[in-house]
Amino acid sequence: MPIEGAGEHILNALSAIAAATGDCGEKWVVGGSAGLALRGARLASAPRDLDIYADAAAATALHERLAGWAMDDQKWDETGRYRSLLSHYRYRGVTIELVGDFEIRVPGSRYATEVDAFLYAHGDDWIPPDGKPSVRLMPLGHELIFNLLRERQDRALEAARLIRDEPEAHLPALERLAARQSLSDGVISELRRLTAAVTGREADDER
Questions:
Q1: Is 8-206 CATH 3.30.200.210?
Q2: Residues 78, 104: Cα–Cα separation, whole Å
């Protein structure tokens, strides 16, 4: 049965990060399973960790603010299709991954995060229940593209469903984001297919 919600431990960690970094002036966004869960995605399991994305310069400043929770030093990591400035933290049982200048390369496509230039402005705010500082969520367009490229069909389908639920809010940003990246014709076609309105014969096929 799909699980909805991020869990109290994730929410507490997010609030703590927001409090620790709120006055440093650097932009960051929440992605991954926690970001999707905060949007109401139906996931196979509850998020166990947090993925925080920033530009590399911002990630360096954020690392200083989170140093008391650090599990390792920041380093450039290149593993298979991924490259990023990576560091990890632990807050009350929650592992936090801070990812700077994230990039994924697969045959025919290259996708790189641009938090300051695009993603932050096109994300959405999540406001903690206690009313403390809001947290910025990754645009759903990022989640769809990223999960298609890494072949996580379950996550891609959930991101696409959420986009279809509110196309006016999310489709323009997805289109602009795709135009900024180097994506294969096959990926572009799949983006269009997954975000198209399900009506008529398509709806019958999905029953």
A1: no
A2: 10
